[in-house]
Amino acid sequence: MAEQTTKRRYQDVAEMIRSELMVGSFQIGDRLPTERHISEQLGVSRSLVRDAMIMLEVEGIVSVRKGSGTYVMRLPHVGDDSAEPQNDIGPFELLQARQLLESNIAAFAATMVTKADIVRMREALEQERHDMETGSGAYVADEEFHRSVALASQNSVLVEAVDHLWEMRKRSKMWAKLHQRIFDSGYQRHWLDDHQAILAALQCRDPMQARRAMWQHLENVRLKLLELSDVDDPAFDAYLFNTDPLAALSSDQTQ
Amino acid sequence: MAEQTTKRRYQDVAEMIRSELMVGSFQIGDRLPTERHISEQLGVSRSLVRDAMIMLEVEGIVSVRKGSGTYVMRLPHVGDDSAEPQNDIGPFELLQARQLLESNIAAFAATMVTKADIVRMREALEQERHDMETGSGAYVADEEFHRSVALASQNSVLVEAVDHLWEMRKRSKMWAKLHQRIFDSGYQRHWLDDHQAILAALQCRDPMQARRAMWQHLENVRLKLLELSDVDDPAFDAYLFNTDPLAALSSDQTQ
DNA sequence: CCGACACATCTGGCCGACCAAAATTGCCTG
DNA sequence: CAGGCAATTTTGGTCGGCCAGATGTGTCGG
Predict the structure, then answer these.
(1) Which of B108, B168, B253 has the CB atom closest to A157's CB atom?
(2) For testing the chain A interface, which of B11, B155, B166, B167 should be mutated: the one with the most A CBs within 10 Å?
(3) Cβ contact B93–A10 (<8 Å)
(4) Does A133 touch chain B (CB under 8 A)?
(5) Does B56 reside within a domain?
(6) pLDDT tens figures, B56-70
(7) What ipTM was estimated for this complex?
(8) Which domain CATH number covers A54?
(9) Is strand D in 7 Å reach of the CB of A132?
(10) The model's pTM
(11) Helix (H, G, I), strand (E, B) or coil at A140
């Protein structure tokens, strides 16, 4: 544990309530016991129970209604507990998922893309070039480009999925570390060509070429990350993922 | 609004803090003002500020440390407020995304699946059968099965992606409406065979068969939904999606 | 007998005071 | 003068009490 985030008691209370929900004592829509009742049953003050309820409400598990009670909105899954175990997702695990998902989204987008989408992607790419030349962090434009690819699918769920992937990337401490090295090495420049290839494939409305281009781009990212993470930090070992099966899968598809 | 969830003041406070972060006054890692300071600046009690901090902490935006202060973990992005703006995603748009993503996740999972995963899927399927016979809502077990397929990929990001898709599904009012009809018609029984086929493909470690089985399953769901939504409600028209391009894409892959 | 209104009670919302951990300060010691 | 230890201050954590909205209930008028 690097960051000594002191245990918060309300999280324990929330965990107890969650496990009570997982055991199946309550159904969706049920009203669970009052905060006072739970507090005296657990032997803690009501404030803690209230804080736990706020946590569960933000997680979408319960809905609190003043004067009425607290109601179950959805049942928690396993591993839904403790808000940040998935906080530090390994960069290679993340890239593996992105390769699988984004390459197929790109392929699908190639069949749905419109002129406006092409324009949007071109603008994002232009912005990337500009950021690269002026030396400002090309971080934002990179995200914008990948997002514009998803937008070309004309499916908001896919866009949200890509947003979600990007959100996880931002949460990953290890990714931030590796990405900083790539930025220092100035290697990002090479990704512009990758993005250009993806754009070209989409412009030709060629699904297989689009899938291949996106896959290759993320493969390049992976290889570069691998190259930059081998030497000094043994902690990276925990994040190494074998993507060979994915590669085999991808080649299956691209035929 | 059907559910009158009374406004909660701490959400307003959280929103103010979020907007203050979005304006760029703070960087990641900065310590923001003490709860007492914020409370008197906004003219509210410290408890409200504290509750807002709990909310922001669950969202991963800040981290609070007893005796030290509250620190910025990540910057909120637009649309991060008001937990459900895109509340009503069309069922067919959602299914389209699921077909694309879940079929490929299944294919990848087929290359990574372990004995324990097979057991987990088998249990979920058994639970589905049991729920079907006893007449209780087979809702939960259905989700559990799809989730167990993602788990077989050994990639937590993919699991989280599938969770996210199901989360959206639950938020969709239109989906709930259609799903109720399917439940009434007793058609869910046929999905058991689909799930069985998916499980079989994974057991054989056959990626293409797995992709095809998952794709066909969701195609069956789509067709049934289409059949049940044609007549009486013109509002459904807005949710009709042409998945032909997706079908073409899928057949490309399955070769 | 039925509906509507008022009140009693139950429920979560909010508050200010006090508690404990962390950080800071400053004194003491070598 | 430098280092370490202890008192003090700062900061979030916890608590019990009171407030306000929602619900259920009993009574009164039709």
Answers:
(1) B168
(2) B155
(3) no
(4) no
(5) yes
(6) 998 889 999 988 899
(7) 0.67
(8) 1.10.10.10
(9) no
(10) 0.70
(11) helix
